[in-house]
């Protein structure tokens, strides 16, 4: 089966969560960022963003131009929408590759929604999240996947819901995002996201 690509639903969660700005801005750590949370560099720091709104920590034109010159970038602030799209594709490519590389039970395949949910979480948390015990445990369960042919019993469906909840209980400060990802993961399956993350 060919590798999956990031779908619309997964991209929406990532973009909605990251915020967006065509101008260079400082992230919560003070690192210069642009587009949908694209980290420009960690070599320079500016006044950290404390509100979550990129527009509250935009670099001045001089700061942006000086940074571009210092890093020898082929762009400066503001970037074009096309450049923002290119940076997003580049930034998500590692997450897409990592989820495609996951070892699934024999014959099992992700739905697009499941794939998107995992890519979003991997993009946000790094590859370490895919190696967490709860994610590994969930991925080992054949009944999680749409390729499982038999109808799930109520008990089996409930078990799947619990596995998903635990797998997406990662970074308690981002419960809202994790619940969106878990809901997406369960979309179209024989089980639902009925146990909010961190509730088990």
From TrEMBL:
The keyword Hydrolase applies. Gene3D superfamilies: 1.10.530.40. One of its GO terms (molecular function) is lysozyme activity. CDD domains: lyz_endolysin_autolysin (cd00737). Its EC number is 3.2.1.17. It catalyses: Hydrolysis of (1->4)-beta-linkages between N-acetylmuramic acid and N-acetyl-D-glucosamine residues in a peptidoglycan and between N-acetyl-D-glucosamine residues in chitodextrins. Pfam families: Phage_lysozyme. The keyword Acyltransferase does not apply. This is Lysozyme. It comes from Anaerocolumna jejuensis DSM 15929. The lineage of its organism: Bacteria, Bacillati, Bacillota, Clostridia, Lachnospirales.
């Amino acid at each position: 089966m060919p590798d999956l690509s990031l779908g619309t639903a997964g991209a929406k969660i990532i973009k909605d969560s990251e915020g967006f700005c065509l101008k260079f801005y400082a992230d919560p750590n003070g690192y210069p960022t642009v587009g949908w949370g694209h980290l420009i560099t960690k070599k320079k720091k500016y006044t950290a963003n404390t509100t979550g709104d990129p527009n509250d920590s935009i670099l001045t034109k001089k700061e942006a131009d000086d940074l571009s010159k210092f890093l020898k970038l082929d762009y400066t602030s503001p970037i074009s929408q096309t450049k923002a799209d290119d940076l997003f594709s580049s930034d998500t490519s590692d997450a897409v590759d990592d989820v495609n590389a996951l070892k699934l039970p024999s014959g099992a395949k992700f739905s697009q929604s499941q794939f998107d949910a995992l890519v979003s979480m991997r993009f946000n948390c790094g590859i370490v999240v895919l190696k967490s015990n709860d994610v590994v445990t969930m991925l080992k369960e054949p009944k999680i996947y749409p390729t499982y042919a038999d109808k799930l019993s109520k008990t089996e469906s409930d078990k799947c819901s619990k596995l998903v909840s635990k797998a997406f209980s990662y970074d308690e400060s981002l419960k809202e995002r994790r619940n969106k990802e878990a809901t997406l993961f369960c979309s179209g399956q024989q089980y639902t996201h009925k146990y909010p993350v961190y509730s088990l």
